[in-house]
Amino acid sequence: MSTTVAAPAQKPANKTTEILTISDAYGAHNYHPLPVVIESAKGCYVTDVDGKKYLDMLAAYSALNFGYSHPRLIEAAKRQLDKVTLTSRAFHNDQLGPFCKELCELTGYESVLPMNSGAEAVETAIKAARKWGYLQKGIEENKAEVICAKGNFHGRTTTIVSFSTDAQYRKGFGPFTPGFPLVAFGDAAELERTITKNTAAFLVEPIQAESGILVPPDGYMKQVRDICTKHNVLLIADEIQTGLCRTGDLFAWQHDGARPDMMTLGKALGGGILPLSCIVTSRKIMSVFTPGDHGSTFGGNPFACAVGREAINLIKTMGLGQRAKDLGEYFRSKLKALNAAPIKEVRGRGLLIGVQIKPEYGNARRFCEAFMKEGILCKDAHEDVIRFAPPLVIEKSDIDWAMDRIGPILTEMPRV
Ligand SMILES: Cc1ncc(COP(=O)(O)O)c(C=O)c1O
Predict the structure, then answer these.
(1) Residues 6+ apart with CB under 8 A from 170
(2) Of 197, 169, 199, which Cα lies nearest the Cα of 183?
(3) In this predicted structure, what is the pLDDT of residue 323?
């Protein structure tokens, strides 16, 4: 042991600055987070490394629908940690089968293919749709197309950014995967005109969240459902962000009663504790996958499945959909009642809410930074939309507390 007394280190201004400096130096700069460093969290509230408390109104882009550290999820995770966490799919484990069964019972579908991230679930859906196109629809080999909506966000893999219409997601990452015609979101007639004999599927978010909480015209999903049925095209709903009660229904497609042939799920499915995603579909469609076609080392691991099973239990028992519906309406009405000059529009469904800012008041991030100083965390979606998507366990009193702080900022923010 050295006896040399080290010179006292330069004391950083605070822990936040210290961690931000380290992150900046050693981490990739592929995100532009708000400058808050979270150390712990419970329910809807987080505490930063300097002891400041914030109300989280983002919920990890809807992954934290149950709030932070829900005791039943934590208990399920701890129980499984002590048993077995990973088996790979070379062997069976005792959690995956029951997870699939319980998810089928919840969703009304027949078969589940588990993965980890949302992007992987979308990749899985694309592979399933293409192979279905060849095997069951009779599309000529290598001609299958999956139509997507302009303004989509389905993840960040090379294939998925191939059909993004956001220039930044694509710039510098080509060449891209072909086979993804694009149509305007909300325009069912254009979808019908774009369908050919090579169309295997239409992949769509029931509400485009990342694009700025864009809600399509009422009935759109139903029209899309009918068109897909008429032309023997699979309807794939990406419910990764909108699903599991976020918009007031268990799934956002239920608003129009337009049951898709397949859904991608993720985010809240892992209880906000770990990554867990999947596709759910019919046994017939899923039968296109045979051993060796597709997989993932961690996909279907018993740790994630045990937490996922508890998440399913909570979905069944907590009444989160009704909460999202009631509190979403309440929150939106409060925001609208501000009649704040910077606000162009307040929109959304359930607790997925977008506040669009007029260009003369700068970008949405400017507002998010001001909210942060007042103890409220949320994030811009697109340049000009503030996204509010709090944990679904939020209380009316939390919304009132937030409104007391958000309100004055929204009404008094000067033009740029
Ligand atoms: C609709 C939708 N699909 C897919 C994804 C990708 O999920 P992940 O970030 O887990 O890959 C997201 C993420 O925000 C999403 O909102």
Answers:
(1) 161, 162, 164, 176
(2) 199
(3) 98
Residues in the chain: 416
For residue 238, indicate whether it is catalytic. yes
Q: Tell me which residue has tokens 């923010």.
A: 413
Task: Examine the domain organization and report whether 48 and 143 are in the same domain.
Answer: no
Q: Mutate which of 240, 277, 279, 298 to test ligand 1's pocket (most atoms within 8 Å of Cβ)?
A: 240
Residue 238 CA: nearest ligand 1 atom is 1
Give 10-residue mean pLDDT values along the chain (416 residues): 49 84 98 97 98 98 98 98 98 98 98 98 99 98 98 98 97 98 98 98 98 97 98 99 98 97 98 98 98 98 98 98 98 98 98 98 98 97 96 98 98 98
Judgement on whether residues 170 and 126 belong to the same structural domain of the protein: yes
| Residue 220 and residue 186 in contact, taking contact as beta carbons nearer than 8 Å | yes
The sign of the dihedral angle between the CA atoms of 111, 113, 119, 122 is negative
Burial class (CB in 10 A: 0-12, 13-18, 19+), 373: exposed
**Residues 349, 227 share a domain:** no
For the CA of 267, the closest atom of ligand 1 is 10
pTM over 0.85: yes
**Same domain membership, residue 284 and residue 198:** yes
183: domain range? 71-317
Residues 117 and 256 in one domain: yes
Whether 89 and 56 map to the same domain: the answer is no
Is the separation of the CB atoms in 102 and 310 below 8 Å?
no
Q: Which of 30, 154, 164 to mutate to test the pocket of ligand 1 (most atoms within 8 A of CB)?
A: 154
Q: Other C-beta atoms within 10 Å of 345: how many?
A: 15
